[in-house]
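Re: beginner question about structure tokens

> Can someone show what the tokenized structure looks like for a real chain? I only ever see the sequence side.

Sure, here's an example I had lying around. Input first:
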Amino acid sequence: MKDIPKFTDNVNIGIQDTPNTEINISGSPTSQSPGVSSFSINLSSDDGGSNSSQRPIGSKKAKLKRKLAEGNSSSVDNLVSSNEKLHDFLKKSTSSRDKGFEMAQLRVQNQAKKLALKEMQEENKILLTNLDSIANSTTREFIRSEQERIIKKRTQEQQQPSVAPEIYGKYFGDIGGPGSNLPEY
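And the corresponding structure tokens:
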């Protein structure tokens, strides 16, 4: 803007001691309004137009600047603390969810054990049934075939290795395993 001809003329503005014309710094006369003093704006200065008579920042703007500076640091601190709280909450919820999942697995396994125990009790009743006491030949033949099926099933179970230590070992330790002090039966 300093190179535009409109702004290169040194225009004096201000209260004048006399209502006549005044000569400015460059020596060219300018007409002034009465009661306005003269001062000159130096647009060609290297300090970017700021001079020692520049107005200080207003109190509202200064307070706003301080509030923004304080607000930025406090909002960052608030954000960091809320992120830490969220992280802790997620850790707790994950661990509680994992515990809940393990508990659900144990419940299912417990129900399976109860069901297997009930089935074994029913099979034992069938195995212990005296066939001579049954009068109906069809019922007697059915009970005899069930006894045979149960005996075959149990002999196959005894020949296969047990899966229970693999399933329950991680929850209850390696009970009766190779490194334990418990006697083997």
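Each token stands for a local structural state, so reading them left to right follows the chain. The radius of gyration is 50 Å.
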